[in-house]
Amino acid sequence: MPIKRHKRRLANGEERVYLYAVSKDGSQRRSLSSVPASSVSLPLYRKAEKNRIVAALQANSSLLVVGEAGIGKSILGEAVAEELQELGFMVAIAHPLTAKQSYLDIAQQLGVETETIEGKSLTSTQLSTGIAEWLKDNTAFVICDDAHRYTVQFRTWLAQLHEQGQSLLLLATFPPARDIFLRLPRIELKPLPDKPIRQIMRSTAQNLGIDMMPSQLSKLQQRCGGNPMLAQRVVREEYLGLDATNPDHTQWIDGTPFLIAGLMVLVITRFIGLGLNSTSLYLIGGILTVAVGVIRLLVYAMPRKSGKLGR
Predict the structure, then answer these.
(1) Residue 205: exposure state from Cβ atoms within 10 A (0-12, 13-18, ≥19)
(2) Which pTM does this prediction carry?
(3) Cα separations (Å) of 295 from 181, 259, 289, 292, 299?
(4) Mean pLDDT for the chain overall
(5) Which of 97, 124, 206, 247 is 20 to 30 A off residue 117, Cα-Cα?
(6) Are 54 and 168 within one domain?
């Protein structure tokens, strides 16, 4: 079934976009999900990734797209679905529901029977088997958003579909290294460059009816880490006059090379002290080396902040 969108304004003034799977004749319509209108209205800044994914799916390959929350996986998945539908293919978009609800959702989008002749609803096993058999005889693509939230039962079924040659696209926020996630080639979405992040922030500010100076955008951009959702959020926080918070993106600089370089300098200092027969230089180098090693162990033993937003 083609995917349609409908925008509504809620009582609190927020605009949301509702996604529906609609049959070709318009007789059947099923609600899929709703997302903030601001996220759907974002331009697609990942056309290269979209084209690569569409080409891979058409080549009967499956892919796993990973990245931090808010990096743009869902928008990319919707763009891939629209592209495939424009090419004449059937697409089913799955969401993290219960296993049976997910099967029912996919079956209705693909037009697979969901009831018996007597009008009784099919069981989870019957639905999953019916979808798998239908996909063997028909060309269609299954896109799974928020795949890291799926149940083990549903992920096992996806692995079975993959084994029978079905093309899948999984979108996940740092999924566990097991089952279906280990089998698929992966694409990791990198942070967006400065220019599109500035465009997102400027567009968000315009929607809120505020003007922001380039210096303000530059200051707020440091808190985004190339994350489009965070780019929108920091502008809203500025609009509401909220105090700045610590950045909660997961793009950080790895300090391991600097630590190793520092340790090597200390070791070289010890050798210089040994070569010059300088006991004090030799002892200082040894003490500092041990001190840096102890600090490193203490730092790694400290509890770490979760890389997921909201935790």
Answers:
(1) buried
(2) 0.67
(3) 36, 11, 10, 5, 6
(4) 79
(5) 97
(6) yes
